[in-house]
Amino acid sequence: MGTALLTDHYELTMLEAALASGAAQRRAVFEVFARRLPGGRRYGVVAGTARVLDALEGFRFDDADLDFLRQVVDERTLAFLRDYRFSGNVYGYREGEAFFPGSPIMVVESTFAEAVLLETVILSILNHDCAIASAASRMAHAAGARPLIEMGSRRTHEIAAVAAARSAYLCGFASTSNLMAGQRYGVPTAGTAAHAFVLLHDSEEDAFRAQLDSLGRGTTLLVDTYDVAEAVRIAVELAGPDLGAVRIDSGDLAAMAEDVRQTLDGLGAKETKIIVTGDLDEFAIAALAAAPVDGYGVGTALVTGSGHPTASLVYKLVARQDATGAMRPVAKRSVGKPSKGGRKWAYRRTVGGTATAEIITGAPIESRQPEQSEDRPLLAELVRDGEIVGRESLDAARRRHRTTLTELPLIAHSLSPGDPAVPTIFK
Amino acid sequence: MGTALLTDHYELTMLEAALASGAAQRRAVFEVFARRLPGGRRYGVVAGTARVLDALEGFRFDDADLDFLRQVVDERTLAFLRDYRFSGNVYGYREGEAFFPGSPIMVVESTFAEAVLLETVILSILNHDCAIASAASRMAHAAGARPLIEMGSRRTHEIAAVAAARSAYLCGFASTSNLMAGQRYGVPTAGTAAHAFVLLHDSEEDAFRAQLDSLGRGTTLLVDTYDVAEAVRIAVELAGPDLGAVRIDSGDLAAMAEDVRQTLDGLGAKETKIIVTGDLDEFAIAALAAAPVDGYGVGTALVTGSGHPTASLVYKLVARQDATGAMRPVAKRSVGKPSKGGRKWAYRRTVGGTATAEIITGAPIESRQPEQSEDRPLLAELVRDGEIVGRESLDAARRRHRTTLTELPLIAHSLSPGDPAVPTIFK
User: Which regions form coiled coils (chains A, B) (predicted)?
Assistant: First the structure.
């Protein structure tokens, strides 16, 4: 699907006015950053970069688009749009990387005309995917070695669900319920049965037998449709001690998990796992750390960013040519929403392998540091002269996320609201 | 785009097991409802029904889908999916209608096999669109006669943004920034310029002149890039008293609107309107009722459902055939998430034109009421034997929403948390 109309009306009216005044062809630099992290979070996670590159590739105005836009802009602007191809450069933080207030997670350099049109779709993608990733990362850390299944598709827009599953996997979830995320992105998919399957049959025993016959003893049986203890007994009676897992979706999950573990152990099903689901978020997951739980399914809280469904990222013009052709930093000066003018570079400073600061500079710096200190550059080349050069696999991004987390100071993993894990230093 | 893979993995494993056991062909009734309204809201708004019908039409498994699903289900299930066509009936509340806890806003009747597959995509669409609509309706009421512009595309997933714009328009917003919502759904689009346009030029005066030359005096000039009072003076000097509007996007909007109104009036621009934007929600809009504001732009709060980004709707099996072929009500019995078995019908009881109750019954009722009392049936036929029969225009749904609101008791429009505006009575 073309992405060019996933754009705010005013990008096109600005383009029209700038084409008329001649300012459209001025070189310009836009930056994507967040002024703050939501809810006192300690770090954010970059996600969606690969989807931005896909959207850029599909950013073409076809005949139907141009017909529609005839009511929005003039002929000169339509002619510009007909030939639109982004010819500039894009730099960005890689997916899975952490970010902090002010981190320039994406930098777009081109003419004003070419770059302004991309604002809406770039922000839509990054605001959504970073919000999900930032929540997912906290959940994955809270879960420790226990696997997380993403199962929130039904609680968010049907296409947003696919991107949410991707972001969750990037940040350490083991699998998703979403089949299109499996097909499109290779995310492992998982799932067995819902209450409807039990209710469909004349007895719980009939339902379990049907499921075991079809999916094998390794399957996960849902045991809380009627009486949990009774269901667990029936399950082990039918499947034997090799039953893969049981799932509990309601009630006091910690207490129920204890009871179910005892019942399973008493029946000799010591290897049968316990999966819990039902309105879990990072706090509920952390609270279950001591319970005999082997895996978590997370739905609503994941796809809604656990209270923060958007990452508050903005796309700001920070530099542009003046009448003489020289580049000038620019920034809004009014109250409430200050921003810093000028193209920026970004580095993660680590000392002895632990991050100590996010360094934002007005020019690239040479990495000459005292021993054990390193300033790792964070901006990678994604698009060069209109050509996409920064693709990487989702698994590479997933590995980066793991590495990035080990580098952050321990306070990064506090679930209590507070300051960002490292300060942002503008140099 | 095909919608069949916008589906949870477990719908297919349930299908496989039910095909094997023979239960897949049992007649079944699923209902979509919310157990509660989020955040003490007084009513919810149905939206997304038309998008569900579109998704149903596109719910086909093509060769690529089937290839992918080879790793998920067996050959018998693949054969079923290859021929999948929904052949059942769907009833639903019409778009724009209010709903309350327990309202069966959609009812799907078919075989278990046909109906269970639709769970995920139906819930994704309705949970998203109803969440946005329910927030939008409160905002539109708070704004009264002043127009609302939806401009939240950048703060939500790029495709979800299109649906959000549709839901906002359905509930009384005047327009959207989202061009694809204009193209696909005919929602009026609007917008003029951002701070980037002012910053692109060497002076605010240059920028305003460029915009006025191109978009005419009726345009809206953004006046808070530098000094607001100075910008308003420049704007009127350049455009004259016929300037369409100015927009303020930061600061104390009530105080700034007062100042700007005085400045405009002092310059003779008495007809120039004032548009305010910047993190508005229904509460901020209500708080600006006494300020000299002529229109609102709403972004983040709209597309995130103003604190409640999902409508908590569930899709539950409520009845199915037993071994004798008789239909039986079914319901989960475990703690925490009770539901009521049996196919349901729904009526809005009004007395003297004002809604007094949501009546949910186990069988259709005859409308023989005492004088001035009426039980209006809420379930309309949407799909009959697999054929879509319930399409209507977005404007018809928009008109219905207006009518529905006038029928609700005044307490429905309270922004304070509390009980639903009318009780739900199960008969």
Answer: none
In a domain, residue B237? The reply is yes
Tell me the C-alpha distance between B216 and A152, whole Å. Answer: 47
Q: What is the mean pLDDT of residues A413-423?
A: 97
Encoding tokens for residue B257?
């609107």
Name the residue range of residue B217's domain: 192-293
Decide if B330 and A191 are in contact by the 8 Å CB cutoff: no
Q: Which residues of A touch B317 (CB under 8 A)?
A: 195-196, 199-200
Measure the CA–CA gap between A375 and A345, rounded to whole angstroms.
Answer: 11
CA distances from B101 to A392, B38, B105, B421, B424 (A): 46, 10, 10, 11, 7
Contact A191 B9 (CB under 8 A): yes
Is B321 within 8 Å of chain A by CB? no
Closest among B335, B317, B339, B32 to A201, alpha carbons compared: B317
Q: Cβ of A250 and B335 within 8 Å?
A: yes
ipTM confidence score: 0.97
The reply to whether the predicted model has a pTM over 0.90 is: yes
- Residues A246 and A362 both lie in one domain: no
CATH label of the domain that carries residue A254:
3.20.20.70
Out of A282, A303, A324, a domain closes at: A303
Among A416, A21, A349, residue whose Cα is nearest residue B206: A21
Counting as low any pLDDT under 50, the low residues of chain B are none
Number of domains in chain B: 2
Q: Give the residues across from B32 on adjacent strands.
A: B106, B315
Binary contact (A21, B214; C-beta < 8 A): yes
How far is the first Cα of chain A from the last one, in angstroms, to the nearest whole number? 42
